[in-house]
Amino acid sequence: MVMQDEQKPEQRQFSLFSLSPLRIAAIYAFFSALWFLFSAWILFRTVSDTATIQWLMNINALVFIVFTAWLVFFLTHSYAQAMRASQRALEDSERLYHSTIDALRDGIVVITRDRKVRMCNTIFSAWIGSEPDRTIGVSLPDLPGSWPAAAWEEIDAVFAGKGMTERELTLKTASGSTMPAEIRSIPVIDNGGVTMAVIVIRDITGRRMLENLKMGMFKEMEKNTLEFARLSDQIRNPLQVILGLVSHGETETDATIGGQIMEIDALVQQLDRGWVESGKLREFITRYYGEADIPGPE
């Protein structure tokens, strides 16, 4: 979305000719010299009486004082208006910028080469138990909470000119709790050198919980798959013995028992097919997550 500031006509007029203290002094000097040269030239060419000339010169001096006072007031007032407009635009831009970064769910902190905080958002200040205004200017190592040595290595690498770095670490907040985080350090380059670093901290607690949940599910799936195989063997072996005993009998009871055994064997075969399908599912998961990511049964 592109935002365009609406300017009043007088503001647009002043923006075409930017005033500065040097330009104000130059305008004053130009009009003063022009006034004295032309007023003296006109006075001496039109009046010859000495007393009249003296009286007109006094009047000319008074008019000059009034005119230059108005000129200086007009120029300085215009300059002050332009400065106030620039200050308001800067404040509006800063408020918009802070509102934008405060709306993010990630913690953001900007530090200088000496590790002092230049700016941060409310998420980061909440993690360290402070306010953004109280955090600015404070050295990052002096803030509540703790950063592992690997985090400082990443930050030092950014200032050493190695570009953006990204790493997953565990941070300790001001409340004493630990937080798994993804830390991304982005260099701010000025005049060919890295002057500041923007550190984006993303809380990945939810992601870690989801990964642990998936690992638990995979582990349970592996365990159930092996249980299917054991259960199939434990059922089929006694059935084979019983079937062998009743197969030699010719009574109706033997035939009934044999039929029931065949039905049980069909159920066991269904368990075998389920075990095969579970094995295929495990192969699919292994292909996408890797064998090392799927823990084996206990």
Features of the shown structure:
alpha+beta; Beta-Lactamase; 3 domains; five-stranded antiparallel sheet; rod-shaped; disordered N terminus
Give a quick summary of the entry.
By secondary structure, the protein is an alpha+beta fold. It is built from eight helices and five strands, in the order αααββαααβββαα.
Largest sheet: 5 strands, antiparallel
Rg over CA atoms, rounded to whole Å, is 43 Å
Q: In angstroms, what separates the terminal alpha carbons?
A: 56 Å
Helix content: 55-70%
Give the H and E element order: HHHEEHHHEEEHH
Instruction: Give the count of helical stretches.
Output: 8
State which percent range the strand residues make up.
5-15%
Question: Overview of this structure, please?
Answer:
- The protein has 298 residues and is of the alpha+beta class.
- It has 3 domains: 9-101; 105-203, Beta-Lactamase (2-Layer Sandwich), CATH 3.30.450; 207-293.
- 63% of the residues lie in helices and 14% in strands.
- It has helices at 9-16, 21-46, 50-102, 122-127, 132-135, 149-159, 205-246, 252-289; strands at residues 107-112, 117-120, 165-172, 178-190, 193-203.
- A 5-stranded antiparallel sheet has the order 2-1-5-4-3, sandwiched between helices.
- Helix 2 runs antiparallel to helix 3.
- The longest helix has 53 residues, at 50-102.
- The chain is rod-shaped.
- The two termini are 56 Å apart.
- The relative contact order is 0.06.
